[in-house]
Each structure stands twice: as C-alpha cells, then as structure tokens.
Amino acid sequence: MENVIEINGLSFGYQRKKIFDSFSLTVKRGVFLTIIGNNSSGKTSLVKLITGLLPSKNEVRIMGIPLNKKNAKKIRSYIGVVFDNPNTGLIGETVMDSLAFPLENLKYDQELILSMIADLAKQLKIESLLRKQVEELSGGEKQLISLASVLIRNPQILILDCAFTMLDSKEKERIYKILKKLHKTTPITIINITQDIEESIYGDEIALMKDGKLLIHDQKEIVYSKEKLLRIMSLEPPFMVSLSTKLGYYHLVDNVFYDMNEMVDALWK
After folding, report:
1. What is the pTM of this model?
2. Cys bridge to 166: 119, 139, 142, 187, which one at CB 3.0-4.6 A?
C-alpha cells in the first residue's frame, strides 16, 4: 500500500524550543488514522508542517513528493484541512458562496457547481444553511460548513484538526459516521487529530503523541490493549471498548463492539 505521508527524522522548534527531535511517521493511502495528544504534544505543529505552513528540510514527503517551497502548491492541492477555528475555511458572505468558491477557482461549470453543492448538502444535512449568511451561523454550524468547504474539493487526504469541538455529542457522532462511510467507499485518507479517545472508534489506526514524540502507531485494537501507554497519556479505552470487555467477562459478547446498536442486536440474538 502506497505511503501518502512520510516523515523521516524531522527536527523542528520555535525560538530555541525543540518541538520535534528526529520525529518519524508514515501514513498509508486509504487509512483512517486518529492522532491523540495533549496541548503540548505538537499536534498543531505537525499539521502545519504536513501542509507546508511551517518550513521543513525535505524530511516530509506527501504522495511521494518532497515537501519544499517548489512543490508546496501542488502538495496542498492533495490535502484538505478542517481547523479548530471554523472561520478559517469560510470565505464567502453566504454558505453557498463559501462552498462554491473552491469550485469556481477550478473553473467548474455553474450547473455542475450547484449540483455538487446540493449533493454534499444532502449528505451532511445542511440544506437549510445554504442561503444563510456566514455571520449568522453558530459555532457548530460553522464547523459543519468548514468541513463541507473542504469535502467539496474531493481531497485525497483529509486532515481534521480538533475540527468538531463545537458540536454536541449526537451531532459529532452523526458526522463521524458519515466520514466513516466516506472512508469505506472512496480511497480518501483521513487523519483526525484530537484529544478525545472516544473519537478513535471510527477510525482503524491510532497514533499517540506526547511532548513531540510518537509513543505508538498501530491498529486501534492493539493501542486499546496498551494499558501502560494509555495511563502515560492519562487516557482510558473508549466507553464501548470497556463495555465490550466487561460483557465479555460474563460471556455475553465474544468481540469488541464500537456501535451501541450493533451490541444490542448481538445481545438479543
């Protein structure tokens, strides 16, 4: 499987403060990776380095291309980033303007633009927001539109940088299920950067970061079993993982469930 992101021996810091010291990470095409770390772990700096917003010295390769000033524009065309600040990706006065803007830059036909926006709005259930002024939106609504403004470009790599902090738990679950379905039906690579381990159940790999170091990067089932590493990060396995484990002790289930409805169905069989 092709590597879409390769970071080899990256060292980086601000004003003599070292953030990464010989940091390495490989992300394969088509994975859904959750990167978990606290505020000082270097998560945001990592996003900026991957997208060329911070300089690196050829330690980063995207889609096999060295990330440098010459290649930065081409590399950014492969990547879509939803930042924690939802105002970052909202350009037009209305929601429709914000979604149309990247497609107009690509010289898409107006009829195609309207069709693509309608399809995505239906998928994300944001049809009622299309005619609204951006300034009228709540923080959570802005985060949904920021996601839509990135997805409309069909990026090969989607990076979510603490992107849904303003959504309630029900709405967040709905969006992650949509992204999980997108991941299963397209070749998109998704990297979700968060402090919340509960979000990791929707992906297939987890990387734990602490103080600029990568503690582990593996399949989520393996990471959930690393109790010592989780304690170092002050984390516990997600609720559904813990519940599955406890029910397994009583032979009520024989595997780990990540969806409550699926667990209930199994218990009733």
Report:
1. 0.93
2. 139
